[in-house]
Specification:
alpha+beta, disordered C terminus, GMP Synthetase, Chain A, domain 3, 2 domains, three-stranded mixed sheet, three-stranded antiparallel sheet
Length: 217
């Protein structure tokens, strides 16, 4: 879903960043671009608003996996009241860190795919944002023998699992065998029940027919 008023959203982001930079004394500058031009092959991320930081304190924004940069981005999401599906519409970057992170996620996705194919066991990534989970999904979308799924929401406890088609097929076969076994057991139980009922009926009939026909009561 597109942002309804991109210009108004950009102004709100500017107000937020002005306050952040003023109160933290960060020596950074930023540029806000609405509908930034992007390469055609970057269909995994097409933000409608791009915020790009630079300056002497850029290293602070990028420290510990760009923790501060991501925190400011999350505050912007909350300020604009964006839902999880709308987070990809706004992107915060600093010294091309976002592009490097995208390349890193795509490489991690390929490593995970190779491990799943080799071991036939699921692979669990570290917790990541909804946007980064989407990057992993898209990176593996052309792998017909793999599937990816997410668990959790937001930044806490979220993960992406990659599993192999062969593993899923084996699970389906096992479930089919268990189903067949249950049907056989039910059929055998029903057969035994009918046999027992018929046996009791025949036994009673036999006692009646075995009586002396000449016997009078």
């Amino acid at each position: 879903m597109a942002i309804q008023d991109k210009i108004a959203a950009a102004h709100k982001i500017n107000e937020l960043l002005t306050s952040v930079v003023t109160h933290t004394s960060l020596r950074v500058k930023y540029r806000i671009t609405v509908d930034p031009p992007l390469a055609e092959d970057r269909d995994w991320e097409r933000p409608e608003i791009l915020v790009d930081f630079s300056g002497p304190d850029s290293s602070l924004l990028l420290a510990r996996g760009a923790e501060l940069l991501r925190a400011i981005e999350v505050i912007a999401f909350e300020t604009l009241r964006l839902t999880g599906d709308e987070h990809e519409k706004i992107s915060f970057d600093c010294m091309n860190q976002r592009a490097m992170r995208l390349d890193e996620l795509r490489s991690l996705a390929q490593v995970a795919a190779d491990k799943v194919r080799q071991t036939s066991s699921p692979y669990q990534f570290a917790p990541m944002s909804s946007r980064e989970r989407r990057i992993v999904h898209l990176a593996l979308r052309d792998s017909a023998d793999l599937r990816t799924e997410s668990e959790g929401e937001g930044l806490d406890g979220a993960a992406v699992f990659a599993d192999s088609q062969r593993r899923r097929e084996a699970a389906v076969i096992r479930e089919g065998r268990r189903h067949d076994a249950r049907r056989r057991r039910n059929r055998n139980d029903a057969f035994r029940s009918r046999a027992l009922a018929r046996s009791e009926h025949l036994e009673g009939t036999h006692r009646w027919e075995a009586a002396d026909p000449h016997c009078r009561i």
